[in-house]
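Suppose you are handed a protein chain with no further information: no name, no annotation, nothing but its sequence. What can you learn? This example shows the usual starting point.
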Amino acid sequence: MQNLIRTSDFTNEEIISLFDDAKLFLDMKSRDILKGKVIVTLFFENSTRTRSAFEIAAKRLGAEVVSLDVGTSSSSKGETIFDTVANINAMCPDAIIIRHSECGLPGTLVEYVDCPIINAGDGTHAHPTQALLDLFTMMEHFDGKVEGKKVAIVGDVRTSRVAGSNRKLLPRFGLDVCFVAPDCFKHESNDHKQYDNLLEVIDEVDVVMSLRTQLERHNEIYFQSLNDYAKDYCITEEVMGDRDILLLHPGPVNRNVDISDEMLLDPRSKVLKQVKNGVAVRMAVLKKLILSQ
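A reasonable first move is to predict its three-dimensional structure. Written in structure tokens, the prediction is:
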């Protein structure tokens, strides 16, 4: 049985096959591929896009979705997450989708269940379906010709699970990833080039991926306000100029902090396209994992 805990759980060939399905699912039509299947969602962190995208994806495929309110679940009464998942597994779901603040936790649950586990984000560690939809968006934009394209990931890369998954996935398909961040937000690894300012590399990149500044994930105060951060790292018309660059963001966007209002309306911005692609890619993931059991 296959799970999706990190992007390395799928081979390149499997990902290309996923994307072939996702292209078909972009019509957003309802299907009965997973009719009679039951999918459980467990979100221990707040989520709008990821949770709704998974639920809509499941329902588009004909599956039933059980969304557990973890705030009123037995976990609030002292039950461990492992017992919670074991009890859910005893009800024989066909897949469990989980988001949790603890890095690596979804992977430790695999031995407690008899169905696929899908990681919808774990702490600062990984967000595999986001990275997959980001890659899919780039492939669609560049007609599949992504090898050699340069991607600048801008912002709080240290705590971003999106950056963590993308820095591992994108190079597998020939994309060159670099980071742009203040010293306090830079990634500890030296596997990728890191810059202090986007202007240092803006003329070399094909894609700019802005990230949400996650001040809540830091123990120290690095900026007095988000506006102080935005002065140097907000993606604006002035920064982008007339360059032919694809602009992405995993959401939620802090307007005029991560990306300016004007750039969100710019045709180069594909933030809402990412959301639609996210449903199609998650439909493909659910189909693959559930039907392959």
